Input
Amino acid sequence: ETLEIFAPLAHRLGIWQFKAELEEIAFRYVHPRPAFALRKAIESRARRYDGARNGVTRTLESKLRADDALDGVEVTVSGRTKELYSLWLKMERDRRRRRDELCAEVFGDVPAPP
Output
């Protein structure tokens, strides 16, 4: 029920954090073996991922701040490791494709015209 009803409902309502938490908890119960294996795999790569995420975040943020076309726009760049459940779904959908385990997000706060 959680994965089929409540998490999609939270998604449609725009409650992203709640959706992710519901999926992660349900994933551990509905698919315990893949959840455990995936969590261990991600944990074993955590240091490498942290370095890559921080490097990409810093580089992207500095490039965007230096761009004259974005003058006056407050840019925020953040990175995160993808949620285990969404990563597992991608892996199940396409087993041959390389999976993306990290995510970078760019937010811009454009001032209102005068």
User: Anything to note?
Assistant: The radius of gyration is 18 Å.
